[in-house]
Design brief:
three-stranded mixed beta sheet; single chain
Amino acid sequence: MHDSVKSFLVPVAKFPQIDQSATFAEAVLALEKAQEEYASGKREQRILLVRGEGGRIAGKLSPIDVVRGLEPDYDKIVPAPASAFVSSTYVINTMKDLALLWSSPLADLCATARNLRIKDFLRAPEASQRIGIDDTLNAAFHRFVLFRHDSLFVMDGHKLVGMLRFSDVYREIVHRVKQTCIL
């Protein structure tokens, strides 16, 4: 796979967007709308991009991000980057259980829906989630496998130009197997 990421990216303009100042409730409704439009064929994308200051894309929002918004301090117990390398030990599980004793995210759902803003729980894309527009599909493949991302932010210098979805890379793998491996 020597093709360039450029050949497979989906331009930013094709994605639904929401402002980072939107409430938790608005985020949930926007995700639902994006999913409905995707399922009906009205829209090609269901990834919801989040606009930050100056209209720049600050990140993406998925259902798991919304659920994390209900527990915004949970990742502070074991930061996300570290959790990929730490096994589930007695100490970590005990700490997480103790944190849950003080939290009732569903009981507080309506207050959260009104008061929490996307910017309060949105995570900026990590370096492993960004890839250059001229990078190879092989480089993207390695990022998908190693970091288990579902999409990558495609950068042209410091400018976000699109997203590379895992589903598109997988589709290309299937295509190549059918074309070159099956006689």
